Structures are given as structure tokens and as C-alpha cells.
């Protein structure tokens, strides 16, 4: 029997949160820190010393011996370096446990080994991590509870102040959207809210496979996805996994996962089985954007850690299995004032809510104007296998509004104003014991990449393994830009009301093409989108080109989110990461094909051949067509495999001679990726013929159905 856990008690128990600070810090210190967190005032060195001391004392009580500046370099993962709290030994040979304000505020990891895209050469290795006091510090314990480390969320910059991480531009973009949103709500007479922050809720999809089987799949071990693998007889066609009853082994895993996350202050809320066998989802309750981004990193780490404990392995790759649903992440985004008003809440009568309608149409304008940038923000090597496949939104950006808002905007387009809003009707089930209730005014659309869902937008293109920093940086910035343009106009208007009506109609009309309420997975939509002139960027590599386009640089520089140099460096890093990932995949394929698959097939055909010979010897008239057919077929596929392998090796040789950068990334995308597919095809056919006992690794069926 499991112990009963007290959720209210354990929630946030390892977080240096507001309650802990209020309790432990002197009043004056607490107030000063709150001021820094809320209004961005500078923190005095003496205050930092007091906070550091209390943080250390608290962490030691939790068992911590070390602290770590925790940051998010451009590798996609998080980085940490641990320092013990100990001071230099005194003359009596004893040490003290120390942690100064300076150590809290500033760290100096050797930055030379993190991607910098030319912003810093290896001999100029200095990089700094700086405490981000808007995201609470926490203590992370190992599964056995033996080690505990104090983690301090930090931003990571170069010696010259350029961002080398995800957090710095994210915080900058949050300042931009805050400033422009406050400007906008002031125009509508709001004098009480002092701050507007994006709220973000991230739904995370993942696969769980048995760890022993995982270890037998070198492709999964090296690359996170299967590079070979034939479809099992059963896939997801019966839809029996989605929302299906959760198996006990998985339920036990989820329970542990929740517990770990709750202790870290992550409000894990919803869990269910996803579409594919072996696939699941976790959604925490939304939080302030910066915290939500940090929390999502913690979710991904904790998924891996807890899976290990249950002898499972968590696959976060966007497409671990060909032909099976991939994994994504839904980034739910809204704008909320410090006094709790959600600016994306249309209210009961959207047609009369001019502030909401202006915000909505500004968002449409932003998304239409910068569709390519939003697409780029979800670009990731793994996501190329997912976007545009029939389970994921296509690579075309469009926005879904639903009937009610669509109708209101149409009224504006036709008449320059709206007089009514469609209402949700009563839901009648026809069963007297089931309560009737009023339905939402609008149904949902699961196929839209950017869907309005009641009081937030849900961006569904993001890949499961990717950080959600990029999409939020882009959203915050492009919406800030649209707000800024609108404010520039409205602040000068003589008749405010008329000017607002005019802008709503203008934006709704000019950016109508981005709105699509139909089936985003259909072939017709691809054609329709092309007719509308909407960009359709099929691959990750192509999408990176947008980062260094002049209009992109202008937008980001205007709102101080990225400088030209930072964007150029990011593009360069992205090309390089793409190249490296595909390079590893191709090398792993070559390795597995030559050392495991080809020898296994040779063994199989040899056994077949000797069995044919034996049968012939035993009885010259015995029929051996089945064996002969198989022998012919597998020998043919074996030689196709060899040819494809040689071709891939040749191309890899050619690739290795290319200079790093955009050209090399394109070479990998255009030459290596198709050559990998050409190698996979005959191997997957062979897997269907070769005796299962001879096949050198667990099959899709073993991985997906035997967890
Ligand atoms: P669904 O699957 O219906 O989209 P889920 O409950 O799985 O809904 O996930 C919705 C996510 O959106 C959750 O993380 C939730 O906390 C978050 N969310 C809800 N309201 C808002 C909001 N106003 N702003 C941002 N995120 C929100
Ligand atoms: Mg959802």
C-alpha cells in the first residue's frame, strides 16, 4: 500500500517561494526584493547578502550542500555547475558554510564550450550568469534523497552583455509586452493595473518505453528516435489509447512524477493517455511566462528522472516512431494584468468589448505579419518529421477564432462595428438525469496551429523536446509591436472611439487571410493557403533564414529583444545544431546497418540457403518455393541495403569536407536526409521478412505495446 501524500503540504516544499521569503527575510529585505521582482528596481549589495544568507540556511535545512546557477544555453537543455557552500579552511582546519550576495547574483561559468555563434571566440571565454529573481530558487534532491542542490535560475550573457541563452531575450520580450500593453490599457481608461505579464501553460506530450528494450535500441539511445522500424500490425487506428484507462505501471509513474513536480512548485494538473500507444500528456496550471518556461524544463528533466526510477525510458523526441503520432507541446498564452484581468477574455458580449477586439485584431496582425518568425520559433530538427504529417498542424501558420469571434469580426469588416454576439446554446443530451448546461459559443478546432481557446491562444506547433522560450519570445515581441503601432495611432486620435473602430475594422480586413477555421490537415488547405499567399516553410533549415532578414532584425531591435549580432549568432548556432544532429543520426544509421542489420540478414539468408540445401538433399522433389522466394527477396533487399549504405557513406564523406554554416545545413537537409530514408526503406521491408529471433533489436510492437 502506498503512503498517502498530503498534496497541500508537499506543494512547493522545495521552493524558496514568496511564503518562505516572507517568513524568513527581515521585513525591509523582503520589501526591497519584492520591489525588484515587481518593479525591476535595483537590488542593493547588502540586501543581496541578507537574501543569500537566508537562502543558504534554508537550503541547508533541506539537506543541500551545494548551490548551482541554473541556466539555459542554446543547446536546448539546461546547464548547471555545482559549488559547495564551504569556505576556505580556517587555520584550525575547519570550514564554514558560506554563500554571499555576490555569489547569488553573479556566476562565471567557463562560457567557451557553449554555443555562441561567433559572438565570442574560445579565447574570450568570459560569460556571466546573473540571478533571475523573478523565477524562484529551489532545491532539487536525488531520487534516493542523498544529495540535494540549491538551484538558482539565472540568465547567461557574454562579457559584452550579449545573450547566450534563452532567458535573457525572454525577459527582454516580457518587458516589451508589458510596456506596450500598459500603454494600451491606459488608453481604454485602466488606471489601476501597473503591469501586464504573459501567462503560459505548457501541455507536454511524451512516450514511455520499457528501459530494457530501450537499451537494446541503439538508435533510440544515440538519437532519441528510431532510425529503422517497420509498423506493427496495430497502430493507433482504433483510437483506443487516447484518453484510455491508464495502466497501473504508468499510473504509478505518473503519481511519482506529480509528487516530484509538486515539491518543486510545478502545478502538475492534467494527465492522460495520448493518441499513440505508449504516448501520454502532462499539463501544469499556467504560470507567469518566465516561470512557465523554467517549469517546462523541470518537467522534461523530471519525466526522464522518474522514468528511470520505474525502469522506463521517457522519449521526448518529436517523432520517435515513423508512422505513429509524434509528440508536441501546446503553448497556451494570454496576457494578464497584475490585478488579475485577462486581456484575452472576451467577456459575455465580445461585440461590445472594444479593448478585447483591438487586442485580438492586433494579435492577428502580428501573426500574419510575422508568420514566418512564429514558424521558425517552433523549428527543430525533430519537428521536421512531425509538422505537416497528418497528426500535427501543417507548417503553415493560420489562426482559428471560432464562430462567435469570426462573426463579430465579419460585422466589423462589413459595417465598421458589431451589434451582436452569437450565443452558446443549451446542450441537450436527451437524458433526463444528465444536467443540461450552456455550451461554449464556439466549438474547438484541433487542427489549427494557433487557436483561440476561450481566453487564450494555443500555439500547437512547438516540438515536444524544444524549449518554449523561443515561441514566447516571438509572441511577446510581435504582439508588443502591434500594440505599439496601435497606440501610436490612438494616442493622436481626436475621436478615440471612432479611431478604435477604425483600427479593428482595418486590421480585421487586412489580416483576414491568416484566419482559417476549417480542417488544417487537409490537402485543400495547403492549396488555399498558397492562394492566400501564406508562407509554407516545410523544413527547419529553411525557416532559419528568416532570423537574419532585415524586417526581423528591425522588429527585434526596436523592442530591445535581440540585436543584429545576437540574431546572426542564433542563426549560425541553429544551422550548426541541425547539422550536428543529422550527422549523429546518419552515423548511427551507418553503424547499426553495417554492424547489426546486414550481419543479421546474412545469417538469416545463410540459414535459409542451408535449409533449402538440406531439404533438397533429403528429398529432391520436395517443394521449397517458400524458402526460395524468401531467399530471393531478402537477398535482393540486402543488396539494396548495401547500395543505400554505400551511397550514404559517400555523401557523409562529402559532407565532412564542407565548411560549417548554412550551406552545410542545406547539404544535410537536401542530401543526407533523403539518403537516410533510402537506407531505411529496404531495412524496414527486411524486418517484415526476417525471422523475429534473428532481428537484432526490439520491434515497434515490442516497444509500443509491451510497456
Ligand atoms: P486542452 O487540452 O483542452 O487544451 P488542458 O487542460 O490540457 O486543455 O491544457 C490547457 C493549458 O492551458 C493548461 O496548462 C492551462 O493551465 C492553460 N491555461 C488555461 N488558461 C490559461 C490562460 N488564461 N493563459 C495561459 N494558459 C492558460
Ligand atoms: Mg490541449
Q: How would you describe what is shown here?
A:
It is a single chain. A hairpin with a 5-residue loop joins strand 8 (268-273) and strand 9 (279-284). The model has no long low-confidence stretch (mean pLDDT 93). Strands 7, 8, 9, 10, 11, 12, 13, 16 and 17 form a nine-stranded mixed beta sheet that branches. Strands 1, 2, 3, 4, 5 and 6 form a six-stranded mixed beta sheet that branches. The chain has 707 residues and is α+β, with helices and mostly antiparallel strands. It is built from 22 helices and 17 strands. Residues 199-201, 203, 270, 283-286, 332-334, 342, 453, 455-456, 458 line the site of adenosine-5'-diphosphate.
| Radius of gyration over all CA atoms, rounded | 28 Å
Question: Would you tell me the overall average pLDDT?
Answer: 93
The gross shape turns out to be: globular
Residue runs with pLDDT of under 50 for 5 or more positions: none
Distance between the termini: 22 Å
Beta fraction: 5-15%
Helix residue percentage: 40-55%
Number of strands: 17
Ligand inventory reads: adenosine-5'-diphosphate, magnesium ion
In DSSP terms, counting alpha (H) and pi (I) runs of 4 or more, how many helices?
22
Question: What structural class do helix, strand and pairing data support?
Answer: alpha+beta
Query: Biggest sheet: strands, sense, closure?
Result: 9 strands, mixed
Amino acid at each position: 500500500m502506498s503512503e498517502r501524500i498530503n498534496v497541500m503540504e508537499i506543494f512547493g516544499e522545495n521552493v524558496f517561494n514568496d511564503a518562505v521569503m516572507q517568513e524568513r527575510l527581515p521585513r525591509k529585505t523582503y520589501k526591497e526584493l519584492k520591489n525588484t521582482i515587481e518593479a525591476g528596481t535595483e537590488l542593493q549589495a547588502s540586501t543581496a547578502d541578507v537574501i543569500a544568507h537566508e537562502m543558504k540556511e534554508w537550503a541547508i535545512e533541506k539537506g543541500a550542500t551545494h548551490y548551482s546557477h541554473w541556466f539555459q544555453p542554446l543547446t536546448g537543455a539546461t546547464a548547471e555547475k555545482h559549488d559547495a557552500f564551504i569556505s576556505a579552511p580556517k587555520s584550525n582546519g575547519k570550514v564554514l558554510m558560506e554563500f554571499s550576495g555576490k555569489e547569488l547574483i553573479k556566476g562565471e561559468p567557463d562560457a567557451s564550450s557553449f554555443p555562441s555563434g561567433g559572438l565570442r571566440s574560445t579565447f574570450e571565454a568570459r560569460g556571466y550568469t546573473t540571478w533571475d529573481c523573478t523565477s524562484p530558487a529551489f532545491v532539487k534532491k536525488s531520487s534516493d534523497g542523498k544529495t540535494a542542490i540549491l538551484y538558482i535560475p539565472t540568465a547567461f550573457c557574454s562579457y559584452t552583455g550579449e545573450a547566450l541563452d534563452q532567458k535573457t531575450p525572454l525577459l527582454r520580450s516580457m518587458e516589451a509586452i508589458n510596456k506596450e500593453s500598459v500603454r494600451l490599457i491606459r488608453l481604454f481608461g485602466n488606471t489601476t493595473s501597473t503591469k501586464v505579464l504573459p501567462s503560459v501553460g505548457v501541455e507536454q506530450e511524451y512516450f514511455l518505453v520499457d528501459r530494457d528494450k530501450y537499451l537494446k535500441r541503439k538508435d533510440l539511445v544515440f538519437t532519441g528516435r528510431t532510425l529503422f522500424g517497420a509498423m506493427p500490425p496495430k497502430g493507433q487506428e482504433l483510437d483506443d489509447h487516447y484518453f484510455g484507462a491508464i495502466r497501473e505501471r504508468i499510473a504509478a509513474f505518473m503519481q511519482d512524477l506529480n509528487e516530484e513536480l509538486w515539491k518543486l512548485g510545478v502545478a502538475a494538473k492534467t494527465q492522460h493517455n495520448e493518441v499513440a500507444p505508449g504516448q501520454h500528456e502532462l499539463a501544469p496550471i499556467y504560470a507567469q511566462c518566465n516561470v512557465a518556461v523554467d517549469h517546462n524544463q523541470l518537467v522534461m528533466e523530471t519525466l526522464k528522472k522518474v522514468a528511470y526510477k520505474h525502469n522506463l525510458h521517457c522519449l521526448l523526441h518529436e517523432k520517435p516512431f515513423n508512422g505513429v503520432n509524434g509528440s508536441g507541446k501546446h503553448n497556451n498564452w494570454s496576457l494578464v494584468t497584475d490585478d488579475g484581468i485577462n486581456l484575452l477574455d472576451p467577456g459575455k458580449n465580445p461585440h461590445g468589448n472594444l479593448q478585447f477586439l483591438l487586442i485580438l485584431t492586433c494579435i492577428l496582425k502580428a501573426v500574419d505579419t510575422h508568420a514566418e518568425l512564429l514558424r521558425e520559433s517552433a523549428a527543430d530538427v525533430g519537428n521536421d518529421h512531425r509538422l505537416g504529417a497528418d497528426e500535427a498542424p501543417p507548417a503553415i501558420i493560420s489562426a482559428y477564432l471560432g464562430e462567435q469571434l469570426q462573426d463579430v469580426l465579419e460585422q466589423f469588416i462589413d459595417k465598421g462595428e458589431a451589434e451582436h454576439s452569437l450565443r452558446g446554446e443549451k446542450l441537450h443530451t436527451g437524458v433526463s438525469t444528465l444536467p443540461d448546461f450552456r455550451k461554449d459559443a464556439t466549438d474547438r478546432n484541433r487542427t489549427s496551429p494557433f487557436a483561440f481557446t476561450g481566453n487564450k491562444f494555443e500555439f500547437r506547433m512547438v516540438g515536444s523536446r524544444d524549449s518554449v522560450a523561443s515561441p514566447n519570445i516571438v509572441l511577446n515581441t510581435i504582439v508588443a509591436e502591434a500594440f505599439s503601432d496601435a497606440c501610436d495611432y490612438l494616442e493622436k486620435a481626436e475621436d478615440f472611439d471612432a479611431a478604435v473602430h477604425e483600427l479593428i475594422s482595418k486590421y480585421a480586413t487586412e489580416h483576414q487571410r491568416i484566419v482559417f477555421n476549417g480542417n488544417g490537415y487537409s490537402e485543400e488547405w495547403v492549396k488555399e493557403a498558397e492562394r492566400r499567399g501564406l508562407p509554407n516553410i516545410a523544413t527547419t533549415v529553411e525557416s532559419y533564414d528568416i532570423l537574419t532578414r532585415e524586417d526581423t532584425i528591425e522588429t527585434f531591435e526596436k523592442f530591445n529583444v535581440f540585436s543584429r549580432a545576437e540574431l546572426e549568432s542564433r542563426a549560425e548556432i541553429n544551422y550548426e545544431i541541425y547539422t550536428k544532429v543529422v550527422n549523429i543520426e546518419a552515423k548511427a544509421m551507418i553503424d547499426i546497418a553495417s554492424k547489426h542489420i546486414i550481419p543479421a540478414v546474412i545469417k538469416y539468408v545463410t540459414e535459409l540457403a542451408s535449409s533449402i540445401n538440406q531439404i533438397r538433399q533429403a528429398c529432391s522433389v520436395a517443394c521449397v518455393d517458400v524458402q526460395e522466394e524468401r531467399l530471393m527477396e531478402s537477398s535482393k533487399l540486402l543488396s539494396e541495403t548495401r547500395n543505400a549504405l554505400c551511397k550514404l557513406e559517400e555523401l557523409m564523406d562529402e559532407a565532412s569536407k564542407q565548411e560549417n554554416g548554412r550551406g552545410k545545413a542545406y547539404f544535410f537537409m537536401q542530401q543526407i536526409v533523403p539518403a537516410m530514408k533510402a537506407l531505411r526503406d529496404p531495412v524496414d521491408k527486411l524486418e517484415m521478412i526476417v525471422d523475429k529471433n534473428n532481428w537484432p533489436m526490439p520491434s515497434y510492437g515490442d516497444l509500443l505495446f509491451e510497456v
